[in-house]
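User: Just a sanity check before I run the rest of the batch. Below are the structure tokens for the first item. I only need the designed sequence back.
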């Protein structure tokens, strides 16, 4: 799959000396949903702002659809729709006029049918003649998305799009994101709701202290870094682990009636079959067992805690 965004050697150091981005290399594929995760202050918004041409890089390059974001800004920016975190709107303007005006800013001819589709997709049609000052916070965020889609961009950036949005609105937004991906739009999102990234994203990038520490297909990331646990209910309680099992990642719980085995699915010689064979050889008989595995949130927390060179 071809890249629609190419970032090479990107650095951003502010006048204060803060190195917000440190040698970022990243390619985002056409038509994918890419989740950019990181703690507050990690550089997510700076990276998005730089790709969108809002923040000028200290060094490095960004190309969107083959256009350099600095030397060919107008062509590159025309391919991008941006939904910022902040609810910045003209309070006295109507929804229809606000979205239509945004389309005109990109030199697009009027297309009432397209604006109508966008507003209906975002459940804003009944509010089309309402002034923005009368809308709830969730509705205002929908208007920001409608503005970003008004000029039919190929790339849509969603910077914390569901912050402060109730569950029903959030569900509608993600349904829209899926439909956009089906039409070939590339979607890049940051979110504090990591379960959304786990549900929606094709690939995940993790940024911390200005460094992109990992980019991976979501399924592959969870396969490689996810830990699994096997929990066994025991017929007879154990006072301690039998000899020969002390070196295995086993933990007793619930008064010795529960045994938990934590393992890495990547490593040979580990896994459910291996541990059951060892336990059977030691005369330990489980009455029940179940397995669990790490969520994307577990993986994210472990990544940002680890030191990176």
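Assistant: Here's the designed sequence for the first item:
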């Amino acid at each position: 799959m071809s890249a629609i965004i190419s970032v090479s050697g990107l650095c951003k150091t502010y006048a204060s000396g803060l190195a917000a981005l440190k040698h970022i290399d990243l390619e985002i594929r056409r038509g994918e949903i890419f989740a950019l995760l990181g703690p507050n202050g990690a550089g997510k918004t700076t990276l998005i702002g730089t790709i969108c041409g809002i923040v000028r890089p200290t060094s490095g390059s960004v190309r969107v659809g083959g256009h350099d974001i600095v030397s060919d800004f107008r062509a590159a920016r025309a391919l991008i729709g941006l939904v910022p975190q902040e609810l910045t709107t003209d309070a006295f303007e109507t929804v229809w006029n606000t979205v239509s005006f945004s389309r005109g800013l990109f030199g697009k001819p009027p297309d009432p049918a397209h604006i109508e589709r966008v507003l209906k997709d975002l459940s804003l049609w009944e509010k089309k003649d309402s002034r923005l000052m009368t809308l709830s916070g969730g509705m205002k965020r929908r208007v920001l998305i409608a503005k970003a889609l008004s000029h039919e961009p190929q790339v849509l950036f969603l910077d914390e799009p569901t912050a402060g949005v109730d569950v029903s609105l959030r569900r509608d937004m993600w349904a829209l994101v899926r439909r956009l991906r089906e039409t070939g739009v590339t979607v890049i999102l940051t979110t504090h709701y990591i379960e959304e990234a786990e549900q929606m994203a094709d690939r995940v990038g993790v940024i911390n202290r200005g460094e992109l520490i990992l980019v991976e297909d979501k399924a592959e990331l969870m396969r490689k870094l996810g830990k699994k646990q096997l929990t066994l209910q025991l017929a007879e309680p154990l006072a301690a682990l039998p000899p020969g099992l002390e070196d295995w990642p086993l933990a007793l719980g619930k008064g010795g009636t529960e045994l938990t085995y934590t393992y890495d699915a990547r490593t040979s010689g580990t896994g459910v079959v291996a541990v059951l064979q060892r336990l059977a050889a030691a005369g330990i008989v489980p009455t029940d067992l179940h397995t669990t595995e790490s969520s994307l949130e577990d993986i994210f927390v472990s990544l940002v805690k680890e030191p990176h060179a």
